Amino acid sequence: MFALFLYILLNNYKPSPKGVRGEILKSIFMKKLISFCVMCLLTLTMTASEFVNLGLPSGTLWKKTNEKGFYYWDTAMKFGKFLPSQAQWEELINYCEWQWTGSGYTVVGPNGMSIYLPAAGYGTKKGENPNVNKDGYYWSSDISNVDAAYSLFFGYSSTLTSILKGQIIPQLMTSLLSVRLVSK
Fold it and tell me: Do 166 and 106 meet the contact criterion of CB atoms below 8 Å apart?
């Protein structure tokens, strides 16, 4: 339906013959309108296909996969409202069942839907990736003090104690951690 709207709009638009300036302004307006419409469509498509409703009380939807690579906290903030808050991570810990798979956790929500959080380790300035398949570190959007922000931490343990299943801890903002996005 949206594509049909754009097709009709583009094929029936004819610039007004009121001068070159008018045509340029209308052209700029049309480009902005089309860009806006495309962004709206991408946002709707992304929400519908890339996020999972785990049935959490807040209604938070969790993205199926991590963002590629590791991020410093200030770089991770480019995701804005899509970067989970400390409260959203805590809700995931408290309301979901965590099942260790050997290289991360399958997190099952109250409604039976699930996401997978890989134990991706963390990044180093040299491009190394220590603790892969052992630990997972994920940024939150909340600051804990001047040079640290909260993050989700989990690690491998044969006893799977609750501390290792998910714990919110401060990390230096200069750490390179994974990012998982959320939506409402």
Answer: no
0.85 surpassed by pTM: no
Q: 68 with 81: CB under 8 angstroms?
A: no
* Count of beta carbons in the 10 Å neighbourhood of residue 125: 7
Residue 35: what pLDDT?
A: 46
pLDDT for position 67: 96
**What would the two tokens of residue 163 be?**
């501390």
Q: What's the rounded Cα separation, in Å, for the pair 57 and 67?
A: 25
- The Cα–Cα gap between 13 and 34 comes to 12
The tokens for 57 are 């009380």
- CB 169, CB 142: distance < 8 Å: no
Top-confidence residue, 161 or 134: 134
